[in-house]
Amino acid sequence: MNSEADDYSSNTKRLHFLLVPLMEQGHMIPMIDLARLLATRDILVTFATTPVNLSRIQPIVDRAAASALPIRFVELHFPVADVGLPDGCESVDLLPSTELILPFLNALPLLRDPLEAHLRISDPFGWPKPVCLISDNQQHWTADVARCLNIPRLIFHGPSCFFLYCNLLINRHRAELEAALEASSGGSIMLPDLPHPIRVSNREVSAVFSSDPDWSKYMETIRVAEESADGVLVNSFVELEPWYFERYGEATGKPVWPVGPLSLYKEEIEVKAARGRVSSIDNNLLFQWLDKQVVGSVVLVSFGSVIRNTMAQLVELGHGLEASGRPFIWVVKEVAERQVPGSEWVAEFEKRVEGRGIMIRGWAPQAAILGHEAVGGFVTHCGWNSMLEAVAMGVVMATWPHLYDQFLNELLAVEVLKIGVVVAVEEPKMFGAEKGDEVVVKVSRGDVERIVERLMVGGKEGEERRERAKELRDKARTAMEEGGSSWKGLQDVINYVSERQKIL
């Protein structure tokens, strides 16, 4: 038998997992890492997404091919124009308006036909049909696909177990929480059934459920689909939130497997820098500059792929960073995308801080930056990917949430883990961007300067925060190493699917 025939025979005996991520950078990136981790365990992996999203991760596709990892990247046609979305808007962060988020999410089931068409094609390399479907929880339509294939469907959850369990409690106690909040006249109330004294205000509660009937209908669809899932994968590790892993599993009655931090999939700088998209800056120049900075002295400021600040807020943020006197890296995607008319101010600002500050106009290799020893603090929107990357690298955070799970993530960082300081933003806007031409300032330059000082120094409390962050970093690395809790979690997923396959 020749080598090609040997490969064909070998493939037919291997487990084949089908992964369907949500098309949004914060959801795509960890699922790509998950795909690569599964492939290193001798699992055949099909990663299905749209053409635009596939082009954005081309360096990862090329690297997977060069390393002979058994991953196939499949294009699924997404007819955005048919549902009134602008051409090419195949990811949440590409939408020109937050008003299009719900239409985008409601259009996701249009991916079902192209996915099923792909699955009907006979495979020339002997790959068997998938024995497991892992989908983002937002891809609710995959429940029907798994049912037709008669295979288990596992949900991949981007947020923490802390958020998932608090989210469950808020929905469970919705009426009494709303009544208590109304009685508190805009104050905060204690969230019940938690081991930590967690107080929530209207922003945390309203971020979980919306009064908009269209949003409520969508969230109910997600809830029903989640109930039919066979298990849950969470991009976190047990040692970070042990009580919440246990309670969330009990509350759902499903196996809940830790598989993170997935950002620790590879330590090589070039691999970390390629996560998500091609960097908008020359990485060699960026890391040469970082190499010249004092250990722990640099502040990273970044708000993820979806959040957009107004020009007025960007100006205040810039002045605050300048006044702090500290070296910084600031990701300013709003100007690169022309979401705000401020390129002239940014150019002038860059000249003033030349040598001490670097501005990245677009996509930044965030995980790689956080991993550099010069970085000592992170001003973040509290997206779970960003927070977990900071945890994995032992970096303390200044928390500046804007939407959805970010408010509860802030409470985890500040109240439970005690590795964050609060920026204290008043009345953050729901579901994303401010209008770029609005004169909206929610954090003044003086507040920015003070919070940076507290983040980077902070006296005895600051030292304790940094020490806790380092301890969590070590636990995160241990969790991902062979025999660790997340390493075992992924192996348990594979064993679960293997056993199910024997029964079918």
Mean pLDDT across residues: 87
- In the predicted model, the low-confidence regions spanning at least 5 consecutive residues are 1-6, 273-277, 430-437
- Which architecture name of the largest domain does CATH use? 3-Layer(aba) Sandwich
Give the amount of beta strand, in percent.
5-15%
CATH class of the largest domain: Alpha Beta
Shape: globular
Superfamily at the CATH H level of the largest domain? Answer: Glycogen Phosphorylase B
Number of strands: 15
Assembly type of the chains comes to single chain
Tell me the CATH topology of the largest domain. Answer: Rossmann fold
User: What is the terminal-to-terminal distance?
Assistant: 30 Å
Summary, kept brief:
The protein is of the alpha/beta class and 504 residues long.
